[in-house]
Amino acid sequence: MNPMRELHGLRADALPEDVLTSTQPLLLRGMVAHWPITQAALQPGLQGGRAAADYLRGFGAESAVGVLLGQPEIGGRFFYNDTLTGLNFRREGGRLGRVLDALMQLAAVPPGSPPPPALYVGSTSVDTCLPGFRAANDLSDPAFQARDPLVSIWLGNRTRIAAHFDLPDNIACVVAGRRRFTLFPPEAVGDLYVGPLDLTPAGQAISLVDMAAPDFERHPRFANALAVAQVAEMGPGDAIFIPSLWWHQVEALEPFNVLVNYWWRQSPEQMDSPMATLLHALLTLRELPPAQREAWRALFNHYVFDATADTAAHIPPHARSVLAPMDATGAQALRQQLIKRLTR
């Protein structure tokens, strides 16, 4: 694995454009160290965790959150059951204050005690769960805020989230505890042994490799993925930029961990998720004879991957229809065509 490129001295109110549009991961050391929640968490030992938890309670102790609960034997790894027919954890609802109380109780268990259960609150809207939190804890750069990012909070004890990718670009800020991010480029997909596309722990397909104990006899190509992996270990105040479609495994390394992240897309608002195209391609293309698949590859290259202004230049502008530059009206018309085809 390779160390990630680090940047120092960046300000949350003045994010450089080349950071926000980077095609490579970036470790942004200390960028949110000034946030009040980070300052609370920087107190020594468990005192920092308690201070950060108390800080969060001040904004949303009664807020409803979704909680993932795993038995001690999963070792914090939220994953599938042994037969890949279900998951190895259960979902419950709760109040943020009670979840924080439970995390503090688990964190206070003396060393040498039996392993605790895994407790994890995944992506939860900050504006809904913690109203007022962003007034003092935010990436406040006006140009960045104009991208209208989705801001979420994540918290839990020692947990492991398998390598997966997200469609949006992502800045993830560690504000309490420590986390290790291991990133793989999109082209490493064939070496990650990705699981089912439809049954997933949280909506995204995940790698089936246990990075804590990889089985190279079962997953030999994973060695190739590790050769191109980038790793970053982060403490309170550090942030990481994860480009769209980069696979990332996330490990929480302390008994109490809090992360705030920002997702945004560098694409027109009317664009749908390309994952819909992938799933439709499985339905329509994968089982074709090889020669036909190659013919469709040529069509996709011509109209999508290698398309230029010349692709439809021979057609009068008024007659280009779906080949014209896509706007919201054109996107809606095309969406209706697809719905008709799918419901025939």
Automatic annotation (TrEMBL):
This is Cupin-like domain-containing protein. Residues 119-279 form the JmjC domain. Gene3D superfamilies: Cupin. InterPro entries: Cupin_8, JmjC_dom. SUPFAM superfamilies: Clavaminate synthase-like (SSF51197). Pfam families: Cupin_8.
